[in-house]
UniProtKB/TrEMBL annotation:
Keywords: DNA-binding, Transcription, Transcription regulation. This is LacI family DNA-binding transcriptional regulator. Gene3D superfamilies: 3.40.50.2300, lambda repressor-like DNA-binding domains. Residues 17-71 form the HTH lacI-type domain. GO terms for molecular function: DNA-binding transcription factor activity; transcription cis-regulatory region binding. It comes from Allopontixanthobacter sediminis. InterPro entries: HTH_LacI, LacI/GalR-like_sensor, Lambda_DNA-bd_dom_sf, Peripla_BP_I.
Length: 345
């Protein structure tokens, strides 16, 4: 169904607080509502008039969130971490803490405070609309797309000062800063295969967009080289990671000789489990991580990993957000990955 042939039901609930609420009444996407209320010509006149009528009936003013933020400045930037794919993951995860530290440095240097939110979308499907409409922030940085890609896309249609850490896809509407994850996955697989591996395992959840791209890149290389690769779902919550890795190792012991971990955090846990089992790395099994967190150079053996420049990413997030706060519709920033070879391969 397109914007030009949308049919809007007559049944109206009693309360409309967000664009998402209005979209549910209209039977269209939040993006269509946003476009209709801003007068975008992509929405036909009949559909736009009906959406405007619903908005008037419920006292919902077009672009009320964005106009509120234009009228007043709070001096604060919101940082939201949606955990739709792994609800038990904590902000204390080493990757989050590393990125948040760099973000805090960059934002405070620019005179902004940070308002941080850990979001469980299943408990609040309007989390992003609610955050940016709270009147407490001037703009928002979303750390990770999780399984919220469409939600972020809808908000991006009508809200400019938002930048997202994540994976860039052709044609997407929201502005992203992140690493070329598919290329990073290729680098990891190429290193493992060049080190003699004949059968690979990917440890990570392939549902989040970034992890899916890393696995896809590794799979491209493995298939081209005639090497098998399997994905073994592994979560990042502390109470799950070690247990899941232990189960995976029981399943694949003697069947694989190379592991590509979706993150350094997973790779570090894997090294511990292998050491407890008396499996020598890299003599018996080789491992490549992803991120190049500070701990990756301190493990035994030191971890070979794919580096994403987290500090540069934080600078990019803040720079693009400030430009968007000034009214500029910026392009996304995709950073190149770099293979860091250490002792685990």
């Amino acid at each position: 169904m397109t914007d030009t042939d949308t049919q809007i039901p007559d049944d109206l609930p009693q309360r409309v607080r967000t664009i998402t609420d209005l979209a549910k009444i209209a039977g269209v996407s939040a993006g269509t509502v946003s476009r209709a209320l801003s007068g975008n010509s992509l929405v036909n006149t009949k559909t736009r008039q009906k959406i405007e009528a619903i908005a008037r009936e419920h006292g919902f003013r077009p672009n009320q969130m964005a106009s509120k933020l234009r009228r007043q400045k709070t001096g604060a930037v919101g940082v939201a971490i949606p955990l739709g794919h792994d609800e038990r993951q904590q902000i204390s995860d080493a990757f989050f803490m590393t990125l948040l530290g760099h973000l805090a440095d960059q934002l405070t240097e620019k005179g902004y405070d940070i308002m941080l939110r850990r979001v469980i979308p299943s408990q609040d499907e309007d989390w992003l609309d609610r955050f940016i409409g709270s009147g407490m922030i001037d703009g928002v940085i979303v750390v990770g797309q999780s399984d919220q890609f469409e939600r972020i896309e809808d908000v991006a249609d009508g809200y400019l000062p938002m930048v997202v850490w994540g994976n860039h896809q052709e044609g997407q509407r929201h502005c992203v800063v992140g690493t070329d994850n598919r290329l990073g996955g290729k680098l990891a697989a190429e290193k493992l295969i060049a080190s003699g591996c004949k059968s690979l395992a990917f440890l990570g959840d392939t549902q989040p967009i970034e992890f899916a791209a890393r696995f896809a890149g590794a799979k491209d290389v493995a298939e081209k080289m005639g090497v098998s690769i399997r994905a073994l779902p592994t979560h990042l919550s502390r109470d799950q990671t070690g247990e899941e890795i232990a189960e995976h190792l029981l399943e694949i012991e003697g069947k694989i000789d190379g592991i590509f971990a979706a993150t350094d955090t997973i790779a570090v846990s894997c090294l511990k489990e292998l050491r407890d089992r008396g499996i020598d790395v890299p003599a018996q099994l080789k491992i490549v991580g992803f991120d190049d967190l500070p701990i990756s150079s301190q493990t035994i053996p030191p971890l070979t990993t794919v580096r994403q420049d987290i500090a540069a990413g934080a600078r990019g997030l803040v720079d693009l957000l400030l430009r968007r706060l000034a009214g500029e519709d910026t392009e996304s920033l995709v950073l190149p990955p770099q293979l860091i070879v250490r002792g685990s391969t």
